[in-house]
Amino acid sequence: MKSGTTWLYQELKKHPGVRMPHIKEIAWFISLETRQLPWYKPNAQSWEEYLALFGSTDGFVTGDVTPYYMCEQGAAAEMQARLPNARLLAILRDPVERAFSQYRMGRDNKFIGPEHSFLDVFFSFDAQKRGFRQTASRGHYAEQLNPFLERYQLGENLEVFFYDHLEENPVEFIHAIDRFLGLSEFDSPDVRAFERHANFDSSLQITAEERRVVEEYYAPHDQRLAELLGRTVPWRADRPEA
Fold first, then answer.
1. Dihedral sign for Cα atoms in the order 32, 120, 163, 158
2. Span 156-205, pLDDT tens digits
3. How many angstroms from the chain centroid is the CA of residue 229?
4. I want to staple 76 with a disulfide (CB 3.0 to 4.6 A). Which of 64, 140, 147, 232 is the partner?
5. d(CA 56, CA 68)
6. Can you name the residues that pair with 202 across neighbouring β-strands?
7. Dihedral angle at the C-alpha atoms of 111, 117, 118, 119, nearest 10 degrees?
8. Taking the CB of residue 136, how many other CB atoms lie within 10 A of it?
């Protein structure tokens, strides 16, 4: 979440070997509890309606770009039951930056008032709209990935990408995703048009103290993620270990 998935959805739609549904976040693999939250709007009432959203895809790659699946208990098991041969990918972002981007979105969209600081929201805010009660736990990446890694093989039908690499080189990033999905490498005319925080109020900036506190909170979670993936996570390269 807040990790370039809208950009990815738009780029995949442009690939000649892909047919994506007209809805970015279909949100089918969602629990009954989540479906009852005020913000949830169903895009399909049955599995048949879900499949119908993809239309005719014979000979094409297609997919569902719903970041929220990572947070959903039971999503991995249902995916395995219905789509055992699917290829899954996750884009992970520095959880501090991801959390602050979520906070900024909440402020920009008036879900969160200016009386609530970033740390208020991160540690204790309990807004029902848009799931802001989960601001901190959404950065528990190892915990979220585990159910998927129990069912899909890392490097074969599940791959983890990093938002840092998208920022550094969008063309190389999308080519890596093309290869993982079994597609030819394709450059759309505006593949480089990726802007960080393009839609949010740039006057809201995380303070040094807020960053320190939240980095400290995430340090053990980042370490578990590195151990799970067997590689260093890029945003921890210059930070002390937990």
1. negative
2. 999 999 999 999 999 999 999 999 999 999 988 777 776 654 455 568 89
3. 17
4. 147
5. 25
6. none
7. -130
8. 18
Beta bridge partners of 160: 90
CA distance linking residue 112 with residue 149, whole number of Å: 34
Phi-psi category of 233—alpha, beta or left, where left has phi over 0 and alpha has psi -120 to 50? beta
Q: Within 13 Å and on the Cβ side, how many CA atoms surround 180?
A: 21
pTM of this structure: 0.89
With 0-12 / 13-18 / 19 or more C-beta atoms within 10 angstroms meaning exposed / middle / buried, residue 153 is exposed
- Name the packing angle between helices 208-229 and 141-149 (round to 10°): 20
**Residue with token string 């080519």:** 175
| CA gap 99, 170 in Å, rounded | 22
- DSSP state letter for 207: -
Residues 6 or more apart in contact with residue 137 via CB below 8 angstroms: 71
How many Cβ atoms from other residues are within 10 Å of residue 80's Cβ?
Answer: 16
Classify residue 231 as exposed, middle or buried by CB count within 10 Å of its CB (0-12, 13-18, 19+). exposed
